[in-house]
Write a structure and sequence with these properties.
The complex is a heterotrimer. By secondary structure, chain A is an alpha/beta fold. Chain A contains 20 helices and 11 strands. Chain A folds into 2 domains: 214 residues, Periplasmic binding protein-like II (D-Maltodextrin-Binding Protein, domain 2, 3-Layer(aba) Sandwich); 210 residues, D-Maltodextrin-Binding Protein, domain 2 (3-Layer(aba) Sandwich). Chain B is an all-alpha fold. Chain B is 77% helix and 0% strand. Chain B is globular and about 75 Å long. Chain C is flat and about 75 Å long. The longest helix of chain C is centred in the N-terminal third of the chain and has 33 residues. Classes of the chains: A alpha/beta, B mainly alpha, C mainly alpha. At the B-C interface, helix 1, helix 4, helix 5, helix 6 and helix 7 of B face helix 1, helix 2, helix 4, helix 5 and helix 6 of C. Chain C: Keywords: Cell membrane, Membrane, Transmembrane, Transmembrane helix, Transport. Chain C: It holds the Pfam family BPD_transp_1. Chain C: This is Carbohydrate ABC transporter membrane protein 1 (CUT1 family). Chain C: It is found in: Cell membrane.
């Protein structure tokens, strides 16, 4: 019963708020200007400086690493507090680390982390503060955010975290390949039939229509194919049986992927290739389409720079040949109904809250990191939960970022991904280990979905 | 005359075989160093070309050095691996001596336990270890030295098993006569161990030391799990930070790997000298 | 006589204490937790247990029904044979050859060690590019020799080969170093005596070198077969999650997959137990076949 409530809650269609900051990640001007650009007027010098442990996913190749580190530096200078930055790349080992910290009571004071099922465990255990609790004492906390879009916890539908930047998933296209095949860049009215016809043309020309490694990262295709067979309102319903509405949509989605595979629209080695290999095909004008997330905008751009750290070395001509558009629509959904949302936010741990010396400092820190100006800087072309989005200075963005904003401006609805509601170990029959068996015909889509549902039922029974 | 020709022919064949294998082991290092001077895109599309002209770039190194203190990371790695290597050799040496020379009831059980210890996957033991160290308060602190200790301890334990397996195998081959002679002169077991066994086993100790050093130097999983803040990072944890999952930056990775590997090779070449010296000086043969 | 020196058993425990204390705290205790966990229901690394499995032995039943586990065991057994022949075998030959030459021996000793120095992440990348479908090194060579079609080296028919070759290659140097250390301990006088007796090179190897190297070879074999059971990083980087289509699972990669990707910790613990039990059994078998000699 509880599960139902949650999915109904999550399926509330989010209105798109387009925002873009005055400076994007890694732009030369940010580096030159150093930390002065941050508005630290809201911060006060601490009388008794404290040391805060902060764990975030702003690490490795995340587009906001530099933004985060500069913002922290400005905070430290303004307040005299010390931040121990314990950030890591959000991979399996990192998630295990966060989990282990909570288990042993050595969690960080502030956490920028996933607000979906990944946070369930510590939300259930009451180890992080809900926004309501914090507001009892600090009524202004996160008041610049729209409560309905902050990314409520799947556990009880309450807000625990304050989001900054969101994500979206869409169809990237290589315009050089399309032009050679005489195909225009698809727009908001792109249909599945047109897509199939285009793939055929592209294939006949000798290209791979779709760059995808189904054996390692089938996630995007899985999600959109299923989204194509239901509606934004029903997308977040997890099936109870293969025959119910959601179950049919999942089977139909998997059949669509199998159909593409049978027609030879994926690269020949799609089952044995790694993700990087197929993206390389797309980069090298050997494949036309790539379904991927908003983080790929940054990835493609740095790939076109001779110095990945220095945006001024961008080969604009090379970047210009990539565009981003809507995933082709079938039946129930419009192409402009896009998958995306706000998957991460700032949590405050109960330990830090109950520590009288730290309480005010952590609240001030999160307020600072989620101010309007800060969110604008971090979010760029993705969604945010701000009530009022600041104005945009478009001159500072590269062509792909501008195309992303253009696409985002036409979005009619945002829907979160349903795979986040399926526990990892229950997904395997349909994901990296299962997808190859499905498309090559070893397992029928019905059986694969059934196996997943069985695993979930088994899990729920425990 | 005839015989001599025969020898030089077979020697020639030997050199051909040895050189062929050497080629396969040198080439990868060469390849990684080459690619560290290329832009990340060229590495996938053009990975076997020599970086000259347009292909040549120093940006990977620039980036590697700009990231949070690579020198501090070297220091942390050397402290960790050095202490692990010394502790492993000492403890494993003592245990191996006891397991080889003494006869006692539990001997077989203990040997089996040692073998089993070699099989425990890190993923299976890391969480209990973390919980244990958290209760001692040595993980997740801002203290540099405590966090280094928190990785040194499990790494010592993790390397002991294989060290004992190698050392017992070697010690079994040592003639007991020298120990008997020392015993006749009134030496106790501790003096026998340090004055007879250790010098005799030197080459094997050196081997074990090199491997323990290397494996803790290259260990990624434990170190990226326990070392949290930039100033605590060891060189592999830093590599892990730099090369993230989304759209792996191969160029930066090649540069970092070069920065990691080159010091180790230099250290190894020096140690190699020492081993050979130790062996020719050791002079007791079986 | 030997028995006299070591008759007093008291020092024994002092020698054993530090090593076994470390192993007890950091290996045996965590592993006992692992055995306990294999009967629990745990759905994420470092998550709390949700109670006993029902029935409590269900993971052990699953073990026998799991197709992927069967593939993993079969592949691991193949890997063991490959490591014995390909790693220890090649290492013995190389060590004997290097022992037979004077000029350049030091050079070979150094360079044969290189593959072990490079981290598996870098080697994985290297081999991925060597075997890359779209114009990797091997396919470029094949083209040079007139091949018209690209070969997908990671396809089902070649996958095992493509996975095992790099693993084999990487560890030859490890056994080489151990064997060379053993070889250097063989007295030059023994060889001299034999050549006076008119023994050929081959006879010297057969009757002097190999018997004296017996214990060291035995050590290498134990390390090789147990190593095959837990080999993980290189195969994982090249063939994530047993791809293609679950053909390349090894016990090590399957355990990692269950731990880190699917988060089925209790089942992963069960696989870890299988790995340890198999490891102890095969090393006992190796020890029985090549009975170690004591003096």
């Amino acid at each position: 019963m509880k599960k139902k409530v949650v999915s109904a809650l999550l399926s509330t269609v989010m209105a798109a708020t387009m925002i873009a900051g005055s400076a994007s990640a890694g732009m030369g001007t940010v580096e030159a200007a150093g930390t002065e650009e941050f508005d630290t007027s809201m911060l006060t010098k601490a009388e008794n400086p404290v040391e805060l442990n902060v764990t975030t996913t702003f690490a490795g190749e995340d587009g906001n690493v530099k933004n985060f580190q500069d913002a922290v530096k400005a905070y430290e200078e303004a307040t005299g507090n010390t931040i121990n930055d314990m950030s890591g790349t959000a991979n399996e080992a990192f998630k295990a680390r966060v989990s282990a910290d909570f288990q042993t009571g050595s969690e960080s004071d502030v956490l920028f982390y996933f607000n979906g099922v990944d946070s369930n465990e510590f939300v259930e255990a009451g180890k992080v503060m809900s926004i309501d609790e914090i507001r009892e004492k600090y009524p202004e906390y996160a008041s610049n955010m729209d409560d309905g879009r902050m990314g409520a916890s799947p556990v009880d539908g309450k807000n625990y975290s304050v989001p900054v930047n969101g994500y979206w998933e869409a169809l990237f296209v290589n315009t050089t390949v399309l032009a050679d095949c005489g195909i225009d860049v698809p727009g908001p009215d792109y249909t599945w039939e047109q897509f199939l016809a285009d793939c055929e043309t592209i294939k006949e020309k000798g290209y791979s229509p779709i760059a995808a490694a189904l054996g390692s990262v089938p996630h995007y295709w899985w999600e959109y194919s299923i989204f194509n067979n239901d509606t934004p309102e029903t997308h977040l319903n997890v099936p109870e049986t293969v025959d119910d509405e959601a179950g049919k949509a999942w089977v139909a989605g998997l059949n669509d992927i199998k159909d593409l595979y049978d027609k030879g629209y994926f690269p020949e080695n799609t089952l044995s290739a790694l993700d990087e290999e197929t993206i390389q095909l797309f980069m090298e004008d050997k494949a036309a389409f790539l379904v991927d997330g908003s983080w790929r905008v940054n990835g493609l751009a740095t790939n076109c720079q001779s110095d990945p750290e220095d945006p001024s070395t961008l080969d604009t001509e090379r970047l210009d040949k990539f565009a981003v558009t809507y995933f082709p629509a079938k039946d129930g959904r419009k192409a402009t109904d896009v998958l995306g949302g706000l998957s991460e936010g700032y949590f405050i741990s109960r330990n830090a809250w109950e520590d009288e010396e730290k309480q005010a400092a952590v609240v001030e820190f999160v307020n600072y990191m989620t101010s309007d100006a800060m969110v604008a800087r971090f979010a760029q072309h993705t969604a945010s939960a701000l009530k009022a989005a600041p104005d945009v200075d478009k001159s500072q963005f590269n062509s792909l970022q501008l195309k992303s904003m253009e696409m985002m401006a036409g979005v009619t609805s945002f829907t979160a991904v349903v795979q986040d509601l399926v526990p990892q170990d229950c997904r395997t029959p349909m994901f990296d280990t299962g997808m190859p068996a499905i498309v090559s015909g070893d397992v029928t889509p019905e059986d694969a979905v059934q196996q997943s549902l069985d695993l979930m039922a088994e899990k729920a029974a425990q | 005359m005839k015989k001599k020709k025969h020898i030089s022919l077979s020697t020639g064949v030997i050199y051909v075989i040895l050189s062929a294998w050497a080629l396969t082991t040198i080439y990868p290092i060469f390849w990684i160093i080459l690619n560290s001077f290329k832009n990340r895109n060229e590495i996938v599309s053009n990975s076997f070309a020599i970086p000259t002209g347009d292909l040549f770039t120093l940006s990977n190194y620039k980036q590697a050095f700009e990231r949070i203190g690579i020198l501090g990371a070297y220091r942390n790695s050397i402290v960790i691996s050095g202490i692990v290597a010394v502790a492993v050799v000492l403890f494993a040496g003592m245990a191996s001596f006891a397991l080889v020379r003494y006869h006692f009831k539990l001997k077989n059980v203990m040997m089996t336990a040692v073998l089993a210890g070699m099989m425990f996957p890190v993923f299976a033991t890391i969480i209990p270890v973390f919980a244990m160290e958290a209760s001692w308060g040595i993980v997740n602190t801002s203290s540099l030295w405590l966090s280094l200790v928190s990785v040194i301890l499990p790494l010592i334990a993790g390397n002991l098993s294989f060290a004992i397996v190698i050392l017992t195998g070697y010690m079994k081959g040592l003639p007991i006569e020298l120990e008997e002679a020392a015993f006749m002169e009134g030496c106790g077991p501790f003096r026998i161990f340090f004055q007879v066994i250790v010098p005799l086993t030197k080459p094997s100790f050196a081997t074990v030391m090199i491997f323990s050093f290397l494996w803790s130097y290259n260990d990624l999983f434990t170190q990226s799990f326990f070392l949290r803040t930039p100033k605590q990072y060891s060189i592999t944890a830093l590599l892990n930070m730099i090369t993230a999952q989304q759209g792996t930056n191969y160029g930066l990775m090649a540069a970092t790997v070069t920065l990691i590997v080159v010091p180790v090779i230099i250290v190894y070449i020096f140690l190699q000298k020492y081993i050979i010296k130790g062996m020719t000086a050791g002079a007791v043969k079986g | 006589m030997g028995a006299n020196i070591y008759k007093n058993k008291k020092p024994l425990w002092i020698f054993l204490f530090p090593a076994f204390l470390f192993m007890a705290v950091y290996l045996y205790y965590p592993f006992l937790m692992n055995i306990y966990n294999s009967f629990q229901s745990i759905t994420g690394l470092a998550h709390a247990s949700k109670g006993l499995n029902s029935p409590w032995y269900s993971n052990y039943v699953k073990l026998f029904q799991d197709k992927a586990m069967r593939t993993a065991i079969v592949n691991t057994l193949i890997m063991m044979v490959v490591t014995i022949v390909g790693q220890v075998g090649v290492a013995i030959i190389l060590a004997l050859l290097v022992d037979n030459i004077k000029r350049g021996a030091k050079f070979f000793r150094t360079v044969y060690f290189f593959p072990i120095v490079i981290s598996a992440t870098a080697l994985g990348l290297l081999f991925n590019l060597i075997f890359l479908y779209n114009k990797g090194m091997v396919n470029q060579f094949a083209e040079l020799f007139g091949a018209t079609k690209l070969i997908d080296w990671k396809d089902k028919s070649y996958a095992l080969f493509t996975m095992m070759l790099p693993v084999m290659w990487q560890y030859v140097g490890f056994y080489f170093v151990i064997l060379i250390t053993g070889l250097n301990n063989i007295s030059e006088e023994l060889y001299e005596a034999s050549s006076i007796d008119g023994a050929s090179k081959f006879q010297r190897v057969r009757y002097i070198t190999l018997p004296l190297l017996h214990n060291v070879i035995c050590t290498c074999l134990v390390l090789a077969v147990t190593g095959a059971l837990k080999v993980f990083d290189l195969p994982w980087i090249m063939f994530r999650s047993g791809m293609p289509n679950g053909a390349t699972w090894l016990t090590g990669t399957y355990m990692y997959h269950q731990t880190m990707i699917t988060g089925d910790i209790d089942y992963a613990s069960t696989i870890a137990i299988v790995i340890v039990i198999l490891g102890v059994i095969v090393s006992k078998i190796v020890n029985t076949i090549f009975k170690e000699k004591d003096y």
